[in-house]
Amino acid sequence: MRPLRPLLAAVLALALLGGCTAGADEPAPSPAKADLQTKVPAELEEYYGQDVAWEECGSNLECADVTVPLDYDAPDGEDITIAVKRLHSSRDGQRVGSLLINPGGPGSSGTSLVDSATALFSEDLRAAYDVVGFDPRGTGDSTRVDCVSDFELDRIRGAQYEPETPAGLEAYAADTDFIAEGCVANSGDLVTEVDTASAARDMDILRHLLGEPELDYLGYSYGTYLGATYAELFPGHVGRLVLDGAMDPSLGSHETVLGQARGFEQALRAYVQDCLGGEACPLSGSVDDGVAQVQTLLQVTEDTPLPTADGRELTAPLAFSGMITPLYESRTWFFLSQALDQAMNDGDGSLLLYLADLMAGRAEDGTYPDGSTEANWAINCADFGSTGDPEIWARQAEELREASPTFGDMLAYGDLLCADWPGDPAGSRGPLTAAGAAPIMVVGTTGDPATPYEGSVALADQLESGFLVTYDGEGHTAYGRSNECVAAAVDAFLIDGVKPEDGLVC
């Protein structure tokens, strides 16, 4: 998930493990294994039956491009490619199968996540599985969405709008129209075909080409929605699915962003409390005082953007992005302290700009090599389009400000981006049940700002076979960055099919 109004891509892959233990019950029952040769529609046989040319691309790594139809409703038409990277099991004798992974976004690269596997995933998991990452359609090294130049992306990311005024709304709409027109001009029909359901169908082709009768999968953040969508479409091919940091698919866009607003405000207060109790904190007084100081800094950047080392100015949207980036991971809070200290005491926005660029995938040379921001725009719009009008958005903006006095204003009017997106939305808001699927683990973090805990509770309840594991802590998602309790529960389920005790809290 991402904050919408500043038009930012928002996923931050983070690692590190902690400590605790998990209890376990009997192995989870599962339906009879699906036949690998399950009949597929005749028009898709060439895709399910293609030969994959794997090539070595690093130590114990192989890479390949897989061909899929651009439009599943017209599979005789244009093809696109999906980039795939596989880290082979470290101990072939213990191999369970292939574990497909997705880092979220939407728009983030699954092949890049494979490169972090040794830091994120336990040794036991890497022994049991070939870890397989892919760049979903429209992203990374797959056939990619392209909308605007790097120069224009810099400008848009830093632009300040006042959509509450007629002139401000017109300026904001002009840029969102510019984005949509650029996506169509540069990417053609791809911009309407990067929806989540199509990506889930791509995953089923990958499952088959990997030689797996069932899909074992670990998805983070937006990757939980992708995984749940797969389970809805292919319940008989669900193996062991773990959905970490879940989105509630039944919520509309405003309800989703409203949850994020509350989540980031809560995360900011948790950070301020921790900062004030430590050393070298740039804030002072009570938690309320510290939050007010952060709000003052945001107002300063809105009125007078701060200079930075690379010559760009730190505007309020960029300051906002730089502030929320370390709020995704409590172990990076010290970066926020350093950035706030530099901005508040030296009048220098360089570190906050660096953090904002990290979130948006901007390289030091000014390029955006992973294309995650533009893919994020396209996938969100292709999935659900836009709802509401300026009058409704103005009322919703007030709700966001009330929920998050610090960040709410930056999260408002996000639906405007998709208002004139080409094509009809491919998805619809509503619960996903995946009736008939094998047990699905949902992991939720109580202090998750980007995908609030309530979303994980809701998804686990909606899924017919869903069950919830709770991490009581701060930060976005849990497996690979929380503690041994979470790691043990996820590993036992993925490796041995063993469900943890009901209602496990780590």
From TrEMBL:
Keywords carried by this UniProt record: Hydrolase, Signal
Leader sequence residues: 1-24
Regions annotated as coiled coil: none
Peptidase S33 tripeptidyl aminopeptidase-like C-terminal domain mapped to chain residues: 405-506
InterPro entries documented for this protein: AB_hydrolase_1, AB_hydrolase_fold, Pept_S33_TAP-like_C, Serine_prot/Carboxylest_S33
Gene3D superfamilies: alpha/beta hydrolase
Pfam families: Abhydrolase_1, Abhydrolase_4
Molecular-function GO term, any one: hydrolase activity
Domain AB hydrolase-1: 99-285
Family note: Belongs to the peptidase S33 family.
Protein name per its UniProtKB record: Alpha/beta hydrolase
Organism annotation: Georgenia yuyongxinii
